[in-house]
Design brief:
Helix 1 packs parallel to helix 3 and helix 5 packs antiparallel against helix 9. The chain has one domain: Four Helix Bundle (Hemerythrin (Met), subunit A). The radius of gyration is 18 Å and the shape is globular. It has nine helices and two strands. The chain has a two-stranded antiparallel ribbon. It is mainly α.
Length: 237
């Protein structure tokens, strides 16, 4: 039976992502974002279980990607669409006409970009330890918790800011800039100090801002990855 455990966890991932979509459509955006968080836990555990039980399979790999498209592509896109649609209604009346009223649908470009990111990841052996481009769960956390973070950062209820962030985050999914992962090859501080520093500062942000911290944590993650990438390039010169 152990070979079914990772796939069961993956199915829990996609189930939570699907329910998140329903919550978002009903206007419960924070609850929808929390469901994505739990879907990410299932996504982590299915890979962990597969490695621990040594039951990796091609079916499990494909199932994982299909689940991620729902939980980390469609679900955050629906949350963002609902938030962008609300923010669009606060714009001056001269913006409230067709085709500008279609702009909130730009939130859904996250879905094809996420699908492409996942397909590329499945066929890129270089991404076993680190990532090239922003991982879909990280992007989902950034997008899904924007409405929550808007309680602390008022500019996140600005429609044009949201539209810009949508475009940037979608492009980050398919960029080839290296970004560190949390797949520890070992736990020695000297070789994994970047990961430990990031986790420590992320914990501080979570204590200070709670759920609203997730977009800030992902921005910090991107910043640290860019710095690490730049330093690596300098050392190679």
């Amino acid at each position: 039976m152990k070979k079914y455990i990772p796939n069961f966890l993956t199915c829990c991932n996609v189930l939570l992502g699907s329910i998140s979509v329903v919550f978002a459509l009903k206007g419960f955006l924070e609850n929808a974002a929390i469901l994505i968080f739990f879907a990410a836990i299932c996504d982590f555990l299915d890979g962990f279980a597969a490695r621990l039980l040594k039951v990796k399979s091609a079916v499990g790999k494909d199932l994982d990607s299909l689940a991620d498209v729902i939980s980390f592509g469609l679900a955050p896109a629906v949350i963002l669409y609902m938030w962008m649609e609300f923010c669009f209604t606060t714009l001056p009346p001269h913006f409230q006409f067709f085709p500008l009223t279609l702009l909130p649908y730009m939130a859904f470009i996250i879905v094809p970009f996420s699908a492409y990111r996942l397909a590329r990841y499945n066929n890129d052996e270089r991404q076993q330890e680190d990532f090239f481009g922003l991982a879909t769960p990280a992007n989902a956390f950034f997008i899904a918790f924007l409405p929550v973070a808007a309680e602390y950062l008022s500019f996140l209820d600005n429609f044009w800011v949201l539209l810009t962030l949508t475009l940037i985050s979608s492009l980050l999914l398919i960029t080839k800039i290296p970004m560190f992962s949390f797949k520890f090859s070992n736990y020695r501080f000297k070789e994994s100090w970047v990961r430990y520093l990031f986790l420590f500062l992320s914990l501080i942000l979570l204590i200070a801002f709670q759920l609203a911290a997730f977009p800030l944590i992902i921005l910090f993650y991107i910043f640290v990855s860019f710095i690490q990438f730049g330093l690596t390039k300098l050392l190679q010169v």
